[in-house]
Amino acid sequence: MGPAPAEVVGHKPLDGGWGWMVVLGAHISIGFAYSTPKALSIFFKAIQEDLDASYSEIAWISSIMLAVMYAGGPVSSVLVSHFGSRPIVMVGGLMCAVSMVTASFGSSIVYLYLSIGIIGGCGLCFNLNASLTIISKYFLTKRPLANGLAMAGSPVFLCVLAPVNQFLLGQFGWRGSLLILGGVMLNSCVAGALMRPITPPPVPSSGAPTKNGDQPDKRNTKMKQRCMKKATKFVDLTFFNDRGFVIYLIGNVMYIFGAYAPIVFLSAYAISQGVEEYSAAYLLSIMGFVDMFVRPGTGLLANSKWIRARVQYLFSFAMIFNGTCHLLCPLMKSYPLLVAYAVFFGMGFGMVFALIFECLMDLMGNQRFPSAVGLVTIIECFPMLLGPPAAGFLVDIFGDYKYLFFMCGGVIVTGGLFLFIMNMYNYHMLEKENLGKTRKPNPTSLENPDGANNSEEQMELNETKGTETNTAREDPGLERDKETI
Amino acid sequence: MAASPWEGEGGEVRRCSERRQKPSHAEDRGTTAMTSSWKQQLVQVLLVLVSCGHGDTKTAAPTPTPLPPVTPLKQDAKSAVLTGKNFTERVELSSPVNMTLSCTWKGDQDKPPNITGHWRKDGQEIQDSRVTVMLEDENYKLIQVFSVVSEKDLGNYSCVFGNEARIDFILEVLQMGEKRDKPVVSYIRDFVVMTCKVEENKPIPTTWNWYTSNGTDKEQINTTASKRFKIVSEERETKLKVKDLTLDDAGQYYCGAVYPIGTSVGQVELKVITFMEPLKPFITILIEVVVLVAAILLYERSRAKKDSAEGTQTNAEQNTEPQGDDKGAEGNDSVRQRK
């Protein structure tokens, strides 16, 4: 079949040109997605006073927003597969704007939960998922760098939004600020406009029949079978058969469980060590600032010849580094040491987050990534929501912050070690499978896991033929699809 | 001679903020209690002097009496050591107290055996407070007990050695913890809630009052008179809720925590704005977004037209292929339908 292999290969990804504008769009979009829940906390005190709510009731707004953003993953990935990234990001931007504007008129906490939490969370979810997908469509050889640059949006926007929010709060109060913030979030639509679709929406694995104009007969049968498949595509459990995916998922869950709690409690810990309140808040800014530069840097590093084929190892190293930082934190008793900790924390955090989606793309390949990321985010929802309260619980029982850091560091280091060891196993198994399967056409696939031998050209060739680390397994997947046609 | 018990926390000059964090009352009281037996005598003698000097009519006795006929006041003490020329110490009080202030001065280069010391209140010399201070252990000491009962007893008490060396004790009402420097912003016809809080480790005020500024005066807010105002006070917290705001409601509001010794005042500024104010930036951003999106999409369309124009001229076959930048550049249904 003519077109199908072409689709497998993917239209050769641009890897540049308009792709960089798409990266800019993704940067903005991801920036809003990750920084908004955190930046909103600046308004909490004012909202708390006006609506007469307790601090934990108000904090739920952020939690609901984050939870919906992650839980909406599967829905978002189906929509992105159907309609492409551009409309979804624009709809997401509109939803965010609507949520903020309606929230500005709110007079009860539940109203805010619904408007900011649920509608806003949905909007951000669309933003996140669609941006990641389009990067995977536009980039292949330079993908780690593109990912790093796009994910850098999160610290950049946080650094920008935090002072802006403070200013708005002083000028307009929390209602006016939410209104203006809604307008600012409309810029996601601009980001969406930048995300020019590279091929029309339909992707072989989920059908919206427009593209294959030269096969009108097959269209109807395709549609029927696709409709049946659609239901299962929301949560595609076949992913769990994929060894690499399961390894990634377990490591990630462990990471997310321990990742956010230190951020939440860092200022409180610093204050308990005798640091002034203002300087303690400054620590988080330092961390964010370092994060901003580390993410693209890590992307650049992961792009390099030596690391590219072994990017999973870099990911596990980054996790172990991050976890070790946390384990050492209780030793940091003075302010300069805490600043050093914040710097290293920023480095570790940035490295992990620059690679977190790149690794999934590397494992899943272009076609399966949208649904995979949906599944991953909805599963990550649970450790993300459980992590900080569990850590807070530890602090309450023991009355000491060091157990929090021990727990988080320990969980993250374990996750990193797990990933490292299991990926060694995985790469080994893949080599064996590659040797077995693709003996005839691609002798180069043998060299593939050993990236050092590949010249740039060869790597590109291999990769466009879909022989990345795990895409050897993609072929069976797509052959499955072809058979059902 | 052991170090004086009044030098409770050591003999260095210390900053007021540090002092405030450590509750020193308890410690001082503890140490003074130990030696109060023989000091009591001295205290009473000095009290007599002081009450005579102050002309303190509250004690309701024109002739010197050993003790003022009120409920026995709590004892407290503050001390400071001066090494330079000046030192200031802030003391926060909430209820009436007999405050023993002691000053220790290390002296100048030349240390005469006697110098004259006196006390001042708010810059004015207290009558009959001049005493001759002997040099003891290389230090000069001035100790005085003041009965601080009402708001007018608060102020700046200074002990002066000779003519220059001075330690100021600023006795004032408990200050409220959080100073809010940012105004509270709200909208016309909306409601607003202003809060004042007292920190956890500080004593609870007897009652709370709210005042609004009327020119230069403070006017107490009467909740029965104006229905728009509602005051809800708990022990450590008070809330003023103002409904149906108008532009005139903007300005300074004061919350007063009433203690036996006086009222501690906190300040909240209220700003009332119309809804148009945030709407203007919002509309600006909206316009900017629409312009940018339109520009990007138009640019894309024009490029697509250019590409497809070239495409149909050069290579008809390539147009039917479902891939390539050609297709990607056209996000348009119309172009697709043409195929």
TrEMBL record, chain A:
GO terms for molecular function: monocarboxylic acid transmembrane transporter activity; symporter activity. One of its GO terms (cellular component) is basolateral plasma membrane. Keywords: Cell membrane, Membrane, Symport, Transmembrane, Transmembrane helix, Transport. Residues 19-427 form the Major facilitator superfamily (MFS) profile domain. The chain crosses the membrane at residues 58-80, 87-105, 111-132, 144-164, 176-195, 245-269, 281-301, 313-333, 339-360, 372-391, 403-422. Residues 200-221, 438-485 are annotated as: Disordered. Residues 462-485 have a biased composition (Basic and acidic residues). It catalyses: 4-methyl-2-oxopentanoate(out) + H(+)(out) = 4-methyl-2-oxopentanoate(in) + H(+)(in); 3-methyl-2-oxobutanoate(out) + H(+)(out) = 3-methyl-2-oxobutanoate(in) + H(+)(in). It is a multi-pass membrane protein. The keyword Membrane applies. PROSITE patterns: MFS. It is found in: Basolateral cell membrane. Residues 441-456 have a biased composition (Polar residues). Pfam families: MFS_1 (PF07690). NCBIfam families: 2A0113. Belongs to the major facilitator superfamily. Monocarboxylate porter (TC 2.A.1.13) family. This is Monocarboxylate transporter 2-like. It comes from Kryptolebias marmoratus.
TrEMBL record, chain B:
SUPFAM superfamilies: Immunoglobulin (SSF48726). GO terms for cellular component: membrane. CDD domains: Ig (cd00096). Coiled coil: none annotated. Residues 68-159, 192-274 form the Ig-like domain. Keywords: Disulfide bond, Glycoprotein, Immunoglobulin domain, Membrane, Transmembrane, Transmembrane helix. It is found in: Membrane. Residues 1-36, 304-339 are annotated as: Disordered. The keyword Transferase does not apply. It holds the Pfam family I-set. The chain crosses the membrane at residues 281-299. Residues 310-322 have a biased composition (Polar residues). This is Embigin. It comes from Kryptolebias marmoratus.
